[in-house]
């Protein structure tokens, strides 16, 4: 497999995760796409840095935002490492990070990098704009800037 072909295959795996698992709630596919020894280098609050932690986060997001989905703006790949810039959307209908349902529509940006080996996601690094999300959920004042 060429470097370019490997990159395209890796991008397809990450896109399926974003669209079908995160956006569609297909947790059988989650089990197929994530390696058993998956490592999250930047786990979200209250999540372990392993496959169980990622699964738990995805379930929490789907429970809090049943219509959770992402618009992928772009993906770039260098071999088995895929970087994706996307905007998540959803309606807050369940508790998330201790915040009870508000019924509010949310959107927040994320940039992440995922390593894909042998068709499975093995590693993750990411930055999500949780500050903006917390503002939208009313947990922080809209004008707060953290300064």
Automatic annotation (TrEMBL):
This is Ester cyclase. It comes from Cupriavidus necator (Alcaligenes eutrophus). GO terms for biological process: polyketide metabolic process. SUPFAM superfamilies: NTF2-like (SSF54427).
